[in-house]
Amino acid sequence: MSSDHQEVSNDSVLDDLAPGLDRSLHRQYIRGIFVLWFIMTVLGVLAGLYLTPILMPHMNSPEGRAAVKTVIVFTVAAAPVAALVCAVALYSLLHTRHRGSLDHPPADGPPLRGNALASGVWLITSTLLVVFLLFWGLTEWSAQQVVHADSLTINVIGQQWIWDYNLPAQTVRLPGGRELKIPKELALSKLNLPVDVPVTFNVTSKDVTHGFWPVNLGIQVDANPGQRTVIRTVPDRLGKFVVRCSQLCGLNHAYMYTQAQVVPDQDFQAWVQGGARGPILAVASSQNGSTK
Amino acid sequence: MTATQPLLEDTVLGPKAGRLYRRQSFATGLGLGILLGAIGWFIAQNTIQSNENFGSDMTVAVTMAGWVIGFNIGIGTFNAVIRWMLGHDQDKDDELYAAGVGQGKARYWKYCTDHKVVGTQYLILVFILFFVGGTLAMMIRTQLLTPNSTFLSPQTYNAIVSIHGMCMIIATIIMVSGPFANFIMPIMIGAKDMAFPRLNAMSFWVVVSAVPPLLATFFVGGVNAGWTTYAPLSVQDGPAMICFAITIITFVVSVTVAGINTIVTVLTMRAEGMTFARMPIFVWASVIGGGLGLYAMPAFLLAMTMMVADKATGTSFFVADQGGSGWLWENVFWIMGHPEVYVILIPPVGALLEVMSTFSRKPVFAYKLAIGAMTGVAGLSIMVWAHHMFTTGWAPDLAGPFMLTTELISIPTGIIFLCAIGTLWRGSNWVRLPMYFGFLFLWNFIIGGVTGIYLSDVPADNYFHGNMFVTAHFHYTLLGGAMIAATAGLCYWFPKVTGRMLDEKIGKWAFWMIAIGFQVTYLAQFYEGFKGMPRRVANYDPLFAPENLISSLGAFLLMAGWVVLLYALVSSWRHGEIAPANPWSAKSLEWHTETPVPLENFLQDPKVINDPYGYGASGAEQVHAVFGHHSHHTIEEGVKQ
Amino acid sequence: MTTTHDTATHEGGHHDTPEQRDKKELSALILLIAGDGLFLVLEILTWFYLRALNPNHGWRFSTASPTNPATSGSNNPHDITAEVAKAPVSWSLLVILATLAVGGLVWFGEMRSRKGESPVPALGLALLTGLVAIGLQVYQFQTLPFQTTDGTYASCFEFFMASNLAHQFLALIVVLGVWNRGRKNLYARNWYQLRLARIWTMWVGISALLLGAVSILFV
Amino acid sequence: MRKLIGASGSVLLAALVVGAIGMGFKAQAYESPIGTLKATPVGTDTTCGAAMHHVKLDLSTYPDSSGVDSAGHPVHPSGNPDWPAYGPSNNYSVPTGSCVTMTVTQYDSGGNLNNPYFGTVLGTVGGKIHVVSSGTNISQCGGSDAATEVPATFNGDYKAIPACAIGHTFTMRPLPGVSPGFFLNVPLPLAGNYAGDNVGNTNDFPHQTVTFSFVAGAKGAYSWNCEYPCGHGVASFGAVMGAYGYMSGYLHVV
User: Fold this and answer.
1) Collapsed DSSP state (helix, strand, coil) of residue B463
2) Which of A225, B158, B634, D25 is surrounded by the fewest CB atoms within 10 Å?
């Protein structure tokens, strides 16, 4: 081992990280890793900000958009950490790799057995990040726990391997003073939802556990036999989507889905009053697309 | 010291050679297993009422139990217990015979107590299980090449998905704790063998007996319920579920025995001077993984026995219309299930840190912090199970606490990253094949980790749960993380295990196929998840067609890469260049004994004077251990002065 | 290196001194009991979970269940709770006492062995008691006023009995072993296996007590 | 070079092994002896409202899968003889955009649906089915459904069948993302209350003949299954219901 490793001066943090390395070489290492880290962090942040909305579908409810937003925020938050790991790994590949014959081991590296400062900074940073993640998650989660006084109740029944929906007779007061009336109980094979009307899904199962997942509403809950689970949302954008089963439920699990759409509340009212006839509502909206 | 193996070739056993139990081998196990299975089937057929609900279940249960018990009697699992009860303890010759002395290659087919034989047996079994699981994965990806595919019926598809999952879970649980915690770990601590050599052999052969019932599921209707076998779906399922449960119950016995054995070995068998603070990080990882396995397995046993009771005797733990609850299953299962993923992950991470240290020519960065991190991960992992249940409707009020514990795990996991990059930092970075896989681990596991925090967040999980995003996430952590790290360990220890060098040229071809195939496969699956494709579906919308096609093509490349790696391993094992005892100039004890390793590992007893990470140190601090009984005192005294 | 040398080394490896074996086996036994204890805790948690759900007080619904022909409900006994509350308590107590007695007798044998006396009579008695305990447990199984299909209470009760039976069986094997080895005078000097047997049989007794207490006290 | 040959050779070998196993798994899927049942064209007419290509499909449901049907085809040869089955095939093929008239002859007994919703006729032309009974069936459902009126014989058009008098259903779901999609639920009334063995499955046994029409939508493999709990275990959806081929299959619109 070369002797320069033994001349350890402990007067600075940088020396701690790299004992025996002369300052200029040392700065070069740090600078190299910093540049790599910076580039990769920027790439990660950009990917989080601009790629996520492209990758994820158009959401029809605040909960759905919260999921997209969470992915963006967490990607941005995680980007520096992930970039640091990649930067150090890449730098050690690009710069400190042992060149020449690979048949014999290179000379030993410096005997760095740890560094209280590096470990401390890392620990504190990751703890702060976790606190942030938790804070973010709990804020979003509690915002989704709001129970609207008046909401459209839909009973969702899962069984192997089909969903059906039961719309009990009810009157829902809408914010504008209008009312949404379901004159008599309706049993439906498709899910139609009026836009901007709070909706409560009472989910249950007739046989095994299913997963009620109205995809673009960004919510889901299992349908458990003998239990009633409840989820709520306010669909606030028009559009079509699919309700899927997210819990393996046997033979035809893959085929357990329903067409669903969010429609203007007047259309919904008219359709309901007409006894919910007709295969599908005539909605003037494009697939997965239009805003209200 | 010269490389000799006098024990295996020259030793003459006592006159008792030829007793009945010395004729036991895999063949007698197979024979007796099939015989007892057939007898069980015959009795069940003729005595159990052909009750439509329970009849076939009981028949399958009795048949499979007959197989497992018969195989284990045949191979010799119960010999020691019976001899103990009779008061006929094994004498020296018996023990030498059991350790494989004088039996050549045949000892690999026997109930051999030599930990190196057990480790090698495990390695072969792991290869086989991975090939089976990989083949099933190819079935899945072929079915999903195009939408509306009718290559497989939904029933066959579900059966394949379930057994792919369980086969891979079993393979990954034993992939490091089997081969390397058995072969390498005792040598690392300077032990002559494991604490309980016979239990060690048992832990292997019991897994072997657990495999046929798992594959038998395909012939009795297939498991419909996925590897998680959520009740009540699994209670509704056919007799294949009984085979599945028998596999798990048998496997639980193996993991429990192996975990106890590992821990007791480290507690009681360390060489002189091998303090806890001087143990290689891999030994710590094996102990933590084994201990966590001891925590997880009872819950698995309970879940499976209750499910068998529900199916075969009509109890109602999980059947709602008789008062049970599926949430009970989900709780008990995930109390096992989440620690279990760290049972899989921690030992490979330990192996990885050994690789990083050796090939960076540097000590493991923050050794004690790394141990703390692995312990922290293990400790936290027993408190996070309900994050698998965020969307089940069970106790929504607990979403916050479980989100907290789940996100807390990212702190110790982050420390493991810190230790890895700290070890790389300024290292000399000798990029041999193990290191390729080390770098791949870092990349994969960072993606697996970051996607994990999306899933730990309840609002985001409400979108991602049960969808392909989860599938991609856990493949990034378990395949891209744990299995790649285990591969790094395999390439690292290959010369010691086989006595030959691994062909790195073919290995690098395999590496690039695996690395690229893996990214293509699972990045495409992340995209499927983003778009909202559910998991475990035999068919999907045309909406998801392009990314499924890409994912399937990537998977074919990935499988081809593994096959090439397997070719490299097998051909090097047979014809490779003879390996020196210490090809990597590493410091831990396994590299400082002969290759091939003699029966009791060391020709002279080691005395440990430092930890095995004395890279770059000077004088005696470079030395991990000294051998023989004269020199080490002086060196130790020299160190003290 | 000569063959003899290696064989000698080997002997040192596998033929530990009784003290070394005691240490190893005691550690292993403690770990095994820890795992087994976890199983027990989860079993009891299962019991409390199902009890908290408590549909129909843990009993099968009396009406026929159209969705599950496995429970016809046709022969559902009336007021089964009161009947059950009387019936198994005394039997359970007997089973528990007998199981605890096995541990006590092994302990007695161990103490005699430590004093240099023969443990065989005590161990023989433990063996008989173990057989009686198993007999009592099987008898209780057969005379229960309900079946596995009678709801969650019955499910848990029978599951507890089954796991207790498995425990008793394992204890019996151990007791049989130490008794036979004692008979062959293998414990003349080292009694560490007797201590391990005592720990195991006492654990079996304690777990029987816990399971019994839970299933009896919280009908 | 030797290494390259070895590596590619092992990939090839593995591909062969995996392929062979794949063929084995493919063969596990039940296929009826007559293969996919193709609809018989009957010309162009206005059964479905507008004038369009009209095809016919004739199916039966049997209480057990042994024996042969009236045309001499085995009902469901490679399986569990005690299980009910659709025959003569579980896979059907109809041309896209055509009007399909299906006739299902229902020989099986039955009872209560898990979910009464599937007693409603959905997705057929006019929202109705035409049922003709071969003889007297039950007049009342049992138990808590005793008040439900069930005709002694069915003869005419029905928009729903009482949920307690169902033999099987033919329930088919749309394909998401495929338009026009179609959803179909046809309840088939139970045929008598006997417990006898129906080996032979001839017209001598009591049966219900159910006829309905629907318009086949866009191309694709539409999965159908029965929603009547005719299996065992939890919710009676185990055994036959979980096994592909007896009470499930595909309608291929080509």
Assistant:
1) helix
2) B634
Is there a domain that residue D9 lies in?
Answer: no
Chain A: touching chains (3 or more CB pairs < 8 Å): B, C, D
Taking CB atoms and an 8 Å limit, are C67 and D114 in contact across chains? yes
Least confident of A222-236, B603-617, D140-154, D196-210: D196-210
Q: How far is C68 from chain D (nearest CA, A)?
A: 5
Across the interface, of B218, B238, B568, the residue whose CB is closest to D238 is B238
Whether B302 sits inside 8 A of C14 (CB atoms) is: no
Asked if C125 contacts C105 with a C-beta cutoff of 8 angstroms, the reply is: yes
Tokens of D85: 């089955």
pLDDT tens by residue, D64-105? 777 777 777 777 876 677 788 887 888 999 998 889 999 998
Contact of B342 with B289, CB cutoff 8 Å: yes
The domains found in chain A, sorted by start residue, are 3-96+114-143 (no CATH), 152-273 (2.60.40.420)
**Cis amide leading into A161 (omega within 30):** yes
CB–CB contact C64 D233 (8 Å): no
Q: What value does the mean pLDDT of chain B take? A: 89
Cα A180 from Cα A195, distance rounded (Å): 12
Contacts of D181 in chain A (CB under 8 A): 259
Grade residue B426 by pLDDT with cuts at 50, 70 and 90: confident
* Percent of all residues in chain A with a pLDDT value above 90, rounded to a whole number: 47
Residues B459 and B373 in one domain: yes
According to DSSP, the β-strands at A257-263 and A191-194 are: parallel
pLDDT category of residue D194 using cuts at 50, 70 and 90 = very low
Q: Looking at CA atoms only, how far is residue A10 from chain B in angstroms?
A: 17
| Both tokens assigned to B241 | 């579920």
- Closest listed residue to residue B203, CA positions, set B325, B82, B77: B77
Residues B623 and B533 in one domain: no
Chain B residues close to C21, C-beta within 8 Å = none
Tell me which residue in B306, B322, B599 faces C68 most closely, judged by beta carbons.
Answer: B322
Rounded to whole angstroms, the Cα distance separating B312 from B363 reads 55
Please report which helix (H) or strand (E) contains residue A157, including its range.
strand A152-159
B121 and B216 inside one domain: yes
Q: Are B228 and B48 in contact (CB under 8 A)?
A: no
